[in-house]
Amino acid sequence: MDRETWMYELRHASDEYLDYLNIFLKAADDHRVKQGETHIWCPCKKCHNCKKFSELNILQEHLICYGFMNGYTRWTRHGESFVDRNMVDTENNGDDIDDSQNDNSDKVDDMLHDIEDNIPDKDYEKFQQMFDDAEKPLLKRLFANAKDAKLLRWHADKRMVDEKLRHVADSPQWENIDSEFKEFGGKIRNIRFGLSSDEINPFGNMSSSHSTWPVLLCIYNLPPWLCMKRKYIMMPLPIQGPKQPGNDIDVFLAPLIEEMKLLWKFGAKVYDAFEKEYFQLHGMIFCTISDFPAYANLSGYSTKGKKACPVCEKDTVFLWLGECKKHGDLFDGKTEKQDIPDPMDGKTTFSRVQNLDIQFGKRNNNKQPTNWKKRSIFWELPYWEKLEVRHCLDVMHIEKNVCDALIALLLDIYKKSKDGINIRRDMVTMGIRPQLAPIEKEGKRTYLPPACHTLSKDEKTKFCKCLHDVKVPSGYSSKISKLVSMKDLKLMGMKSHDFHVLITHMIPIAIRGILRDDVRHAITKLCLFF
Q: What is the reported pLDDT for 316?
C-alpha cells in the first residue's frame, strides 16, 4: 500500500494503519540513533515537525489522535532525502543513458542534501512546502492557494470599468478576444499570459560576450500591481549562451508553444481553492514584450537596415550616415506631413511570412528579399492571426535608453554621448546647422563648437549637485546620492526604475536655471511624455 493511502485514508485505529505506523516509528528511531540525537520530531497535524519528543509512545499517541501533517509522504525529518536517490537509479538503469546526465543529477542531489542539512528549525516547514510545490505544475499551484485563486479573478470581479486604461483588460485586444473566442473569454479563470525574453549576462564583468536569454511568462489576470511581481512570474525555459539565439530562438520555444497549444485546446484539470471545485483551465499568450532588437527575434522582422520600421516596411524613410556607419531616420529639419500607415492585421501579416523557406542552425541560407526573415513559431498558435497586437515594445526599456542618452548628452560623457565628431560631420554632409561643423586645425585637436545643450563644467556641477542632494522615501528608488559621482560629474550604477524616476521627476528640476528656456522646455516635454 502506498504512503498516500495508509497515511491519509485509513482509519487511525485500524490494524493496517497501526502496522504501517510502527514501520515509520522504527525508521524515525533508527535515524535518531544514527544522528546521535535524543529527541524525534513529531510530524502530526498539531506539531507540524516543529516539536520533538524523547519518547516514541508520545509520537505514536499524537499520530493516532491527530494523524500526519498534510503532504508528508517523504519523511525528510526522519532519515529520507528530498531527492529519492533510489528512484533516480531505478529510472536510469538503461544502457543508453548519458553518463553526464547522471553526473548532473548527483550534483543537484548533493546540493539539496547540503541545503536541507543547514535549514534552521523555524524555516524547515517552509522548505518542505517549497519542495512539495516544486513537484506541482505552477498553474495548478496558483489555484491551489485560495488567496491567489481569488486574485486571478480580479480582472473580472474587482476591476473598475470606466473607459480608462488602468489594466490590460481595458485594452481593445482583450475585448476582441472575448468576442472572437466566446467560449474562452466567457470563463474568467482562463489565463492570458505575456511572454517576454531578452539578453542577460549572468557572469557580469567576467565575460563581456556571454548571452543568456531567459523566457518569462507574466499573468495578466492579476491586478496591475501584482502582474510583474517576481512571485507571479514564471520562467518556463532559460536559453543558455554563450551566444544569442537570433532567429533560432524558435527552436528553443518549440516545447513551450506545444504546451500552449494543448492548454488552449484541451486545457488542464485544476482545483480552485477559492471556489472549492475542480475546473478545466485554458490559457493563451496574449502578446510578447521585448525591446526593439529582441522584437526582431520574436516576430521574424529584422529591425536593422534600411527598412527597420515594422509598420512602414518598404515605405520606411531612411538615410545613410556615412561617418557613423549606420542607417538613421531622415531628419532634415522639416515638418513630416505624411500620414502614419495603418498597422497590418494578422491576416495580412501572415501572408508576408506564410511561404518563407526557413532553415535553422549555423549554416542556414535564409536570404529573403524583404526584412521578414522567418515565419515566427507563434503563428502555430491557432489564435495568433486574430490578435491585433502580437508584439509589444517594453516602454521601461525604451525609457531607460532615452534617459541614459539624455544624461550622457547633457554631461558629455565620453563614448556615451550621441553628440560626437562623427555625427557633426554627418550634419555637415546633410547641410544641417553649419555653425556646429567641427573645426579641424592642423596639428591640433578637432574643436566642436558648443551646441544649445552644451553645459559648462560649472553647470554640470550644479546639475549633478542638485541630483546628489535629492532625498527620497525608502523604497521610492535607489539612494540618488550614491548614483552621482561629483568627482567625475556623471551618474553610474542605475537600474531601470532609477532611470524612470530621473526622467519623470528629477531631470526637469535639475536643468532649471542652467539651460536656455527653449531647450529646457523641449527636454521637459520629453520627460513629461514618459
A: 79
Picking from 294, 480, 291, 488, the residue whose alpha carbon sits closest to that of residue 400 is: 291
Q: What is the pLDDT of residue 137?
A: 59
Q: Give the angle 517-518-524 at the CA atoms, nearest 5°.
A: 85
Q: Tell me how far apart the alpha carbons of residues 346 and 385 are, in angstroms, rounded to a whole number.
A: 4
Q: What is the DSSP string of 172-227?
A: HHHHHHHHHSHHHHT-TTSEEEEEEE--B-TTGGG-SS--BEEEEEEETTS-TTTT
C-alpha cell at 173: 485586444
pLDDT for 305 equals: 81
Q: What is the pTM of this model?
A: 0.69
Angle 56-65/15-35 helices, nearest 10 degrees?
140
Cα gap 271→301, rounded to integer Å:
41
- Cα–Cα distance, 266 to 383 (Å, whole number): 14
Distances (CA, A) of 448 to 184, 424, 434, 510: 61, 8, 12, 25
**What are the cell numbers at 123?**
524555516
What 3-state DSSP class applies to 484?
strand
Count how many Cα atoms sit within 13 Å of the Cα of residue 93 in the half-sphere of its side chain: 6
Q: What local confidence, expressed as pLDDT, does residue 92 receive?
A: 34
| Element housing 237 (H / E) | strand 234-239
Contact in structure between 61 and 11 (CB atoms under 8 Å): no
pLDDT under 50 in the chain at which residues?
83-118, 134
Sign of CA dihedral 514, 519, 520, 524: negative
Q: What pLDDT, on a 0 to 100 scale, did the predictor assign at position 108?
A: 41
Quote the pLDDT of residue 396: 87
Neighbours of 279 (CB within 10 A): 16
Q: In this structure, are strands 391-393 and 268-272 parallel, antiparallel, or unpaired?
A: unpaired
* Cα three-residue angle 290-295-296, rounded to 5 degrees: 155
pLDDT of residue 181: 95
Closest alpha carbon to 401 in 416, 423, 422: 416
The predicted pLDDT at position 138 comes to 57
Predicted local distance difference test score (pLDDT) of residue 128: 56
**Alpha-carbon distance values, 287 to 142, 284, 295, 463 (Å):** 21, 9, 12, 40
